[in-house]
Hints:
heterotetramer; A: about 325 residues; five-stranded mixed sheet; 11 helices; globular; C: about 375 residues; alpha/beta; five-stranded parallel sheet; two-stranded antiparallel ribbon; 13 helices; 7 strands; binds thiamine diphosphate; binds magnesium ion
Amino acid sequence: MAIITYREALNQALSEEIERDKNVVLMGEEVAQFKGSYKVSEGMLEKFGGERIIDTPISEAAFSGLAVGAAMMGMRPVVEFMFWSFCYVAYDQIFNNAANIRYMSGGLINVPIVFRGPANGGTNVGATHSHTPENFAANTPGLKVICPSTPADAKGLLKAAIRDNDPVCVMENTILYNLKDEVPEDKDFLIPLGKAKTVLEGTDLSIISHGRSVHTALQVAETLSEKHNISAEVLDLRSIRPLDVDSVINTVKKTNRVLLVEENKPFCGVGAQISYLIQDQAFDYLDAPIKRVSSIDAPQAYSKALENIQIPNHDRVLQKALELAS
Amino acid sequence: MAIITYREALNQALSEEIERDKNVVLMGEEVAQFKGSYKVSEGMLEKFGGERIIDTPISEAAFSGLAVGAAMMGMRPVVEFMFWSFCYVAYDQIFNNAANIRYMSGGLINVPIVFRGPANGGTNVGATHSHTPENFAANTPGLKVICPSTPADAKGLLKAAIRDNDPVCVMENTILYNLKDEVPEDKDFLIPLGKAKTVLEGTDLSIISHGRSVHTALQVAETLSEKHNISAEVLDLRSIRPLDVDSVINTVKKTNRVLLVEENKPFCGVGAQISYLIQDQAFDYLDAPIKRVSSIDAPQAYSKALENIQIPNHDRVLQKALELAS
Amino acid sequence: MEGLHHDTDLETVSEKPTSTEQNFDHIGDVSNGDFSKTAINQSLSSEEKVVLYSQMVRIRRFEERSLRAYQQGHIGGFLHLYIGQEAVAVGAVSVMSSDDHVITAYRDHGHALAVGMDMDECMAELFGKKTGCSKGKGGSMHFFAPDKNFWGGHGIVGGQTPLGLGIAYALKYNEKKGACLCFMGDGATNQGPFYESLNLASLWNLPVVFVIENNGYSMGTSESRHSAGEPLAKRGDPFDVNWSVHQGHDLYEVREAIGNALSLAHEKQSPSVLEIVTYRYRGHSVADPDQTYRSKEEIEEYKKNKDPINLFKDKLLAEGVLTETQAQEIDKSAKEESDASAEFALASPFPDPTELMDHIYWESDHPEDKSSEGTLFFETI
Amino acid sequence: MEGLHHDTDLETVSEKPTSTEQNFDHIGDVSNGDFSKTAINQSLSSEEKVVLYSQMVRIRRFEERSLRAYQQGHIGGFLHLYIGQEAVAVGAVSVMSSDDHVITAYRDHGHALAVGMDMDECMAELFGKKTGCSKGKGGSMHFFAPDKNFWGGHGIVGGQTPLGLGIAYALKYNEKKGACLCFMGDGATNQGPFYESLNLASLWNLPVVFVIENNGYSMGTSESRHSAGEPLAKRGDPFDVNWSVHQGHDLYEVREAIGNALSLAHEKQSPSVLEIVTYRYRGHSVADPDQTYRSKEEIEEYKKNKDPINLFKDKLLAEGVLTETQAQEIDKSAKEESDASAEFALASPFPDPTELMDHIYWESDHPEDKSSEGTLFFETI
Ligand SMILES: Cc1ncc(C[n+]2csc(CCOP(=O)(O)OP(=O)(O)O)c2C)c(N)n1
Ligand SMILES: Cc1ncc(C[n+]2csc(CCOP(=O)(O)OP(=O)(O)O)c2C)c(N)n1
Ligand SMILES: [Mg+2]
Ligand SMILES: [Mg+2]
């Protein structure tokens, strides 16, 4: 297996699916001539031409809706948001049109579309550019949501999303774009949505996480075993909706202690939903209350001195883990 | 105290505050000449004139943003959404501009604005018109959210919201507009945000709810006591953010069993957050897992045959309550 | 100016757009306002003309019947009637070719019947029945018939404009010689996505025709109270989108205008904005008491002088292709068909509670082809 | 046409808008393109002219210094430089009166300094320091100074246009004789809320001036690739909003255009859209390698022939109100001021972690006046 970056893995997934299916196109701001504002689509315009790799004006509502309309007609558009934060100006097209048209038409129509882009903080871009709307999307029946945390997942999940016959929101992370790891070359390498992954086996507590927070969780797990002789299991949800509830419950039953780590803001974040599910289905297995580490409950701060504390970092997670394990 | 409808209570609150403070205006679609599409502002145009009661075109993004800009300048606009569902076309103005400008300006600015309108299902208006975005708003630091369930609360909470110096989202319910009850006439009758209300004392289980679901909860409590000799306590949250966590924890400590009832869709709904808080702060007081009844996890259906089942109704809530109590 | 006649202070209406009201010749040279002689209308056989007439009558009778059903409590939620505007949908659809598509807003009964949906599935949808076109899931605002190139029925004002653009995009991408007719109201021109769509339509040269059905009111707000600048079609101008204004009470004129816009889209893939001036007789929805924003006289004037059905009937009588008795038969059978559809709807079963969970995801509707794992639903029936 | 000169294939640039490029006379009768003689510019004293010159120089030096600080790793996130466009902000702000207000997008350093914010608070904000104008919370895109009628600094493209409208609305409501200058980019004209705002501005007659700073590119997308129809200012036309196009490299012309739009807003409360053609020398943001969408020659041509600072300097030299030595001193002190601001920023403390929780709600910042109860925050530091 080749070792490539998360960015290259996304590029491979997109390129392979565009080659595979004429109905797949990529559209968004600066994806073509500019090679993508985060260079995810580098080289694709040259390779596939302007018919398949399409630069748009700053009209998220119109091009998101355009892509939904095209998907209704059988195309499989991939819409890139420069930041997922910009879905706020296209909200109706995603959360009403993409999500509801199948239902409102009594199943006469389906909307095979992918909305993708980075949804994360940590790069000091401030309150308007750091939203993590995976909880909003997952709250919405009709939408699916995935948050790949590794290059291999980025490729396998994005390819599965593009082949999926329903709308899928793919939430990436600008900080992970340079992350390198092994990625299968198989053109049919797919990771099914809704399958969590135990990225570290452990016995004393379970850290359940998604997206970049998974890597923070792994660092903390290392500290826990090295410095505190605590064995943490780390579960990467990978997909928020569908959600791998079984894997969540299994790790709880194994360790009896749970720490939820995510970049979402806390109130009604993903961790809130997971907490409900765990206490509902594994109540008697819990030796202690479920704990959470989310982003600090403030609009995203610009100053790195603040934002480094605001997003779940090693020390905040470690502290909560120690409280939980003690 | 006079007995008036929820609709009249809102009208009183608006009228009194408009009389009290020149900075308060009401704007939205059909609020003036048409008297409000649900007649909430009936008579106000005649009383206060077109300067204070303002009809807008169907431009939610522009008039929401206009109101935010005016609030930055010291006005106190009340923006009516014909349905809260339409916030999806004004999302950025509410969830970025209203919510973040104070923070991004380091506290130089505050945004005293009220966004109000109905946010409910149950009237067969279908998937696009039945959203309940209280969880989205409450997830967003910078915004406050209230869901009045009675005429008195509608008046006292809306008046408090208008006098509040921060953005407040007031989520009403078209089905409650005709609900009649006693409402204080005092022009300074205010109900503080963040104060829940125990609407029924009980000992065997706690039903925690907000909005119209509170009335369903009360009906179920009646059935429980009459037919099953079970004493249910009913807590009306009234305000989602700020949230009266103490009252939530107190009722849990009293009854040791919790049923959460809401119209929100389940994944990352308000009940998910409450579940987390309860198990975190009252873990040892829980005799059983927290249970939830939310809307069925599908886009809102049009057919009343379906929607009557989709929203939390007496029988669905009763069934869960009995499971919990047994 | 043609907007003004919608204000409560009535003005006489100009019979046809003046030259300042278009940047493009969407209509053949018609000096006297008689469009019956233009090529596209000349090509109509007597039978075809009668069919067009009966379609307008069917739509009106269907809606009148649905109104009664609403009053009888069989229909819930909203019911937005198209009565008065029939010539627009019928005229427009009548000039479509096989690769042309339609999308519209929530006032969609007329377009649905015009594209050939049958009364039964439409009435049953209004009743929220399993036999409805959307199986009771969509209701009045959300009729769909993809097999008839009809893509809804959309409840969020202006929300369908980017969708219409996308349909046009897909047609062009697949090298089909087709276009999308995207209907919208005058009030919908105040939703931002419409302008984003105009820019993209022109920038990418997409075969979309935005048809503004200007009935003069956005709910209770007259055009002059909701929109600055006239005519509304001119809003396409700065984007170099062809635009023009037409009278919607004359089915022949509608056919001429839409026909020309469609050929422009077919030949050059150029988008257009057509403003078609029309009028609704009923309140915005059945819930609208209709007492605050227009005079009874205004409504009566329209019914008297501009009723699209009467006007077309008179033309056909004059042309000798229709007789009074025929007209009465057409009306009679339209009423019978409407009554039958109401009976059908009434007799049809409501969807089963378990159907709440159908049609949410393609995948959950096709378990045999399921590719994902895990839990998709978090509160089920 | 003036858009074309932004395409990578260069064309010669017309020195002033042709008559087809405005629907309203926003500039006095200036035959030869020399705006120095118009009343608003005649009224300038020599000292005032020198101040305007030095302001442009200060903005450029400040930003050049901030670029170095970014490269040294002192500044995070985005840094959008205004270099090349200085005459627009300085010229516009120079004709404002006390009740006029400003709001702009994320490329806001020039406007901030033009309204009188000092370099220290601005540089410190870029450094994310407690001493920054937004206390380190906002960063480059979010400068604010309400005390100077400056309302930001907004990161979401087009998101400030309704806010600017609201500022104008509040001014009119409070019967102030003021207006709001709402700056935006050429790319921002493709955001729907701008059109909703144009309609409301005209419908309600609000004193707002939308100033499109057309630097030819929306990030890496040239005007002709992102917008159909020219000029962009004409997009105000269908809403009956006054519009015109002007050259932004001539500070005198900017003053004339903005001055006239402001008096129109003051006297008649009429809104306007002014397109001011300008150019940015640097990449879209410091992160933009600037290699995909324009030629080095294009940039060089601007620096050579259209640099607003050089052009104004030459004018002042010719007018004899400025000498070379003065100019050098101005430049020297601007550099020193910039360096000092960087030192100030560097020496300033970062915000304390607990400050994360400040400025979220007015109420939590004023515990003494707290009216609500219950929990406001669900994960705190
Ligand atoms: C975004 C949005 N805002 C408001 C509404 C409520 N609403 C439904 S129809 C309507 C008036 C639309 O008028 P127009 O576009 O002229 O269409 P017409 O009803 O005349 O056919 C309004 C305000 C909505 N459905 N969507
Ligand atoms: C809604 C939204 N979409 C995309 C972006 C990302 N973005 C920031 S600036 C920009 C280009 C804007 O160009 P223009 O309006 O011409 O302003 P300029 O940068 O030239 O000053 C883009 C696409 C954003 N901030 N907001
Ligand atoms: Mg209308
Ligand atoms: Mg630009």
